Amino acid sequence: MAAGRRDAARELHRVHILGVLRDHGSANRADLIRATGLSRPTISSIVTELLDDGTIREVGKYTSGTTKGRPSQLLALTPPSGHALSVDIGHTHVRAVVADSAGHVLQERVVAFAQRAATDHALSQARRLVAEVAAAARVSPDGVIGATVGVPSPLDRSGRPAAARFAGLDLMDPLGLDSYTDRIRFVNDADLGAVGEAAFGAGSRFGTFIYVKLSHGVGAGLILGGRLFQGRGYAGDIGHIRVVDDGEVCLCGNRGCLETIASSAALLRALQPAHDSPLDFTDLVRLADSGDPGTQALLSDAGRTIGRALSAVVTTLNPEAIVVGGALGSLGGPVVRGIQDALDRYCQPAAMRDLVVTVAACGDHAEVLGGVAVAFGLVE
């Protein structure tokens, strides 16, 4: 074959490989062989070239869930230079950041509310914070790769928040993000926490893990094979698994959901009789952080309840790890021990082999960092 034809064929192979990575977000070398039909030596040679010239990069490890063999290296397109806007709208806070593709936060603003804020007020605060971080970072529309908004709600099939508090609201205009980019995506907050930990935190060494967010509510994000799994929008919504047959009525309309037992509101109701002054969420975090015995016991109980709800998921998915985050989960200690105890008791033993239960590393920034990762396409 003439040199020109060999070069043309090799360039086509490069384009094919890049197309697979563009379509799938990330892949290991075996995935590329299956998707392209190219030989292992050809894949190895072209991947080495693409890594050397910076077109692609290594983004993490993937394992199939077995203990045989070494984890394979996931590859992904190198994200473009520029900045991402990321907004986390929580029940009692709004956080906005400008960051680069390495997860370096260049500017950040956060506002906390004494109690759950009305949605329109939270959105107006988010708009203000977005404007402030964008101005402080001196970002221009042509320098913003994309924007991500985390919301405490499942997403419907059109990608809009499905919770009642967002019903009928046009979320685009109030946030003002379209002044900076037309690539705007809304994502469930627990899903963003999972992505943040996968890209920059405790989940970066696992290909398959469950991120559990314990804060005002209880939620989970699923990273399967290095990618975020959302199902039809409600995947990971473990807060609404029924754990008590005749329990308290939940906001979702069911009874005895996990959130009625293990959410911050439930824990505060249980703690209040032991305290003279009214308790709020910040008091709960303070008591947990200070080692208060009653709070520690309640968090341990909550961890066991969450672990039991997770046991079927762990047995079914056989993940490598459970990463526990959120304002309460990130405190670790009794919550993590409670989850571990319940998993040991209720999971299939084989599913527990080598399972790691660990505390999230990104803390309060898991969601906004997840938004950065989504905007840059670091985790699909």
Task: Give the helix proportion (percent range).
Answer: 40-55%
Mean pLDDT: 89
CATH topology heading of the largest domain: Nucleotidyltransferase, domain 5
* Mass-distribution shape: globular
Largest sheet descriptor = 5 strands, mixed
Q: What's the tally of helices? A: 14
Radius of gyration: 22 Å
| SS elements, strand count | 12
Q: Give the CATH level 1 class of the largest domain.
A: Alpha Beta
Strand order of the largest sheet: 5-4-3-6-7
CATH architecture of the largest domain: 2-Layer Sandwich
Can you tell me the CATH superfamily of the largest domain? Answer: ATPase, nucleotide binding domain
Q: What distance separates the N and C termini?
A: 39 Å
H and E order:
HHHEEEEEHEHEHEEEHHHHEHHHEH
Any idea how many domains? Answer: 3
Low-pLDDT residue intervals, each spanning 5 or more residues: none
> What is the percentage of strand-forming residues?
15-25%
Task: Explain briefly what this protein structure is.
The chain is an alpha/beta fold and 380 residues long. The protein contains 14 helices and 12 strands.
Describe what you observe in this structure.
By secondary structure, this protein is an alpha/beta fold. It has helices at 3-24, 29-36, 40-52, 119-137, 172-175, 189-200, 259-262, 264-271, 281-290, 293-317, 326-329, 334-346, 349-352, 366-376; strands at residues 56-62, 72-77, 83-89, 93-99, 105-112, 144-151, 184-188, 209-214, 218-224, 227-229, 321-325, 356-359. The strands form three sheets. A five-stranded mixed beta sheet has the order 5-4-3-6-7, sandwiched between helices. A five-stranded mixed beta sheet has the order 10-9-8-11-12, with helices on both faces. The longest helix is centred in the C-terminal third of the chain and has 25 residues, at 293-317. 43% of the residues are buried. The mean pLDDT is 89.
